[in-house]
From TrEMBL:
Residues 459-479 have a biased composition (Basic and acidic residues). The keyword ATP-binding does not apply. The chain crosses the membrane at residues 52-74, 592-611. Keywords: Electron transport, Heme, Iron, Membrane, Metal-binding, Transmembrane, Transmembrane helix, Transport. This is Putative cytochrome c. Residues 436-479 are annotated as: Disordered. The keyword Protein biosynthesis does not apply. PROSITE patterns: CYTC (PS51007).
Length: 626
């Protein structure tokens, strides 16, 4: 997003209205903030003399940002703008002129995905997942009619207006109402079934049943009774047996929806939207209608349960690492992680350099952080359907930091740094962990039998000589402290494996650090479609030229990358994020509260003293002249 904004800044002193719409859709809330500040400073460039106008513009944009922050929080994604609309304006006459106008609109704006013939084979279709709609067939997923029936014109209008979450179908609010009706009339010409004027049986939603713990509990029972878990998984993460079989073995173009991610629900994620989907089903997919299987009340109960297991993406620009006393969590499933505040970061396929990833399977990752006086730990969580991988294609995650914390806004390039601005990368790989675990277990048995009975005198003498040389250096105290930290980390995380640490100055300039500089440890865990990875490292290392040093009171940029082995992701084919920030929280000393209390008492005392002084010695009022 930073690159997009910078490119736009070089084009014009002010952003045109069309660029606003395009960049907001691509950048979400972060794009709003960047464009807002840019527009403000651009305006200041032109308005140099009028201070009142400057202040007015600044207050106006600050107010806009504040309102948006109150609604969705900082750095929210584009779900702020993609709400499933229900209101439909009056239709225009379906004439030949309207169809011809719709054809012109379609060939200008829609054929890239849907193809010039409307068959879903547009130029960008191979790089989209799911594939664009084929208008020659009744593949319409969101409709208010019964399963297998064509949607109404009003249904099509709502989709064009709102877009479809979890797909490349955007909202077309840039088109006028008349233009939207025109393109709908043209789309209908691809399927002859629209001309048959068949009777469309509408489904009735009726009044929504209130949600309650009892309703959610009943919905959970229906989720199992209706066999929903076979596709959507036990916890709704799309890791059901049928889904993995369809995609993994038979390569069917169907994937069950991840019900834990509310922002990916097709056609909206309100309870009414979920109820409609359960009632109507999706045409030409394994998702059928449950209108004949479940009663009206049961469908509302099931809708409430599905809504309860979903969550909205809440992304914070700054991740706050919480300070804890004593030891850090012992593993990714330690209950101590519950005190840490998570943030969820959107991911996108890496398309900057070859080999590119156009169809990523991991679209977000959650991260937490805790630290104590010696170490810092991160917990990374993401949804992984299958846990299928091998030696070549393995699940993996990487954390990236600049080697030196930047003092200003200038950061290394978010995609593996750049020349002159090196980044350090921690790379955890599931296959490597299983391999290291097996090797350590076998080596542990051998070492125990070999060393049982005494120490190696030769090695001990060499170590003493090496230590005497180190005593002559100026940094001996710091090196000893670092060694103590390393030894303690080894004791606390014995079942962890080494996380590969590397340095990069670009895609083609990646170097692995020496074995004695590998300070990070990691441990992974997978269950029911969710993968967790904990990575821990000491706050300070002795390799300051190649390692990030975690300091309190500073904003430390970080970026993430994730690989899904079952999707054939390897090397540059990965899901990535842009730069976000990490800060180490500091506890407020108790003396601060004492100082504040003393200041309040002193201020109150002075006030009472002044009031008493005035009452005791009132000022003389001069007599009025007659």
């Amino acid at each position: 997003m930073d690159i997009i904004i910078l490119n736009e800044l070089n084009k014009s002193p002010l952003v045109p209205p069309m660029e606003w719409r395009r960049l907001l859709h691509r950048g979400g809330f972060r794009g709003i903030c960047q464009l807002t500040f840019f527009t403000y400073y651009s305006s200041m460039y032109r308005i140099k003399s009028n201070t009142i106008v400057k202040c007015t513009i600044m207050c106006l944009f600050a107010g806009i940002i504040s309102l948006l922050c109150l609604q969705v929080g900082f750095a929210q994604t584009t779900q702020l703008f993609r709400t499933y609309k229900t209101d439909v304006p009056a239709k225009i006459p379906e004439t030949y002129e309207a169809i011809a106008a719709g054809k012109a609109i379609f060939e200008k704006r829609c054929y890239y995905c849907h193809g010039i013939k409307g068959d879903g084979n547009g130029p960008v279709a191979p790089r989209l997942d799911p594939k664009p709609r084929n208008f020659k067939r009744n593949e319409y997923k969101i409709h208010s009619t019964e399963l297998g029936m064509l949607p109404t014109d009003e249904d099509l209008f709502r989709i064009i207006t709102s877009g479809i979450e979890g797909t490349a179908m955007p909202f077309w609010s840039t088109l006028t109402n008349e233009e939207r009706w025109q393109v709908i009339y043209y789309i209908k010409t691809f399927d002859k079934s629209f001309k048959e004027k068949e009777t469309q049986k509408m489904i009735s939603i009726g009044a929504e049943r209130p949600s309650s713990p009892e309703s959610i509990k009943r919905g959970k029972e229906l989720f199992k009774a209706a066999k929903c878990f076979l596709c959507h998984g036990e916890d709704g993460r799309a890791d059901g047996q049928i889904t993995t079989t369809l995609k993994g073995e038979w390569d069917f173009p169907f994937k069950a929806r991840n019900l834990s991610k509310g922002w990916l629900y097709k056609g909206g994620n309100t309870t009414k939207d979920i109820y409609r989907t359960i009632t109507t089903g999706f045409n030409e997919t394994p998702m059928g209608s449950y209108a004949d299987y479940l009663t009206d009340d049961d469908r509302w109960h099931l809708s409430h349960y599905v809504k309860s297991i979903s969550h909205d993406m809440k992304t914070e620009v700054v991740l706050k690492s919480k300070l804890v006393e004593g030891d850090l969590p012992a593993g990714p499933n330690d209950a101590a992680w519950e005190i840490a505040n998570p943030t969820e970061i959107p991911l996108a396929g890496q398309i900057v350099a070859s080999p590119r990833l156009w169809l990523p399977s991991i679209d977000s990752i959650r991260i937490k952080s805790l630290y104590n006086k010696e170490d810092i730990a991160f917990l990374l969580e993401w949804d992984d359907r299958t846990n299928e991988q091998d030696e070549v294609f393995s699940d993996a995650v990487a954390m990236q930091f600049p080697v030196k914390i930047p003092e200003g806004l200038r950061k290394p390039y978010f995609a593996m740094g750049e020349s002159g601005k090196s980044v350090t990368i921690w790379h955890w790989r599931d296959y490597n962990e299983s391999l290291q675990t097996k090797e350590s277990e076998s080596e542990g048995d051998d070492l125990e039998s070999a060393n049982d009975g005494g120490t190696n005198i030769t090695e001990q003498k060499e170590a003493e000589e090496h230590q005497e040389k180190e005593l002559k250096t100026e940094d001996v105290q710091e090196e000893k402290a670092v060694e103590k930290v390393k030894e303690k980390a080894k004791e606390n995380y014995k079942d962890f494996v080494t996380v590969k640490e590397m340095n990069a100055k670009g895609f083609k300039n990646l170097v692995e650090q020496p074995s004695d500089s590998q300070h990070s440890k990691g441990k992974g865990y997978w269950k029911n479609g969710k993968r967790k990875v904990m990575i821990v490292r000491s706050l300070i290392t002795d390799d300051k030229k190649v390692d990030i040093q975690f300091e309190t009171g500073k904003l430390i940029p970080y970026a993430l990358a994730v690989w899904d082995g079952s999707n054939g992701e390897i090397g540059g084919q990965k899901s990535i994020s842009s730069w976000y920030y990490l800060t180490l929280e500091m506890t407020t000393p108790r003396s601060v509260y004492l100082y504040v209390l003393i200041a309040i008492i002193m201020a109150a005392s002075i006030q009472f003293w002044v009031v008493g002084r005035i009452r005791r010695f009132p000022p003389k009022v001069p007599a009025e002249e007659k």
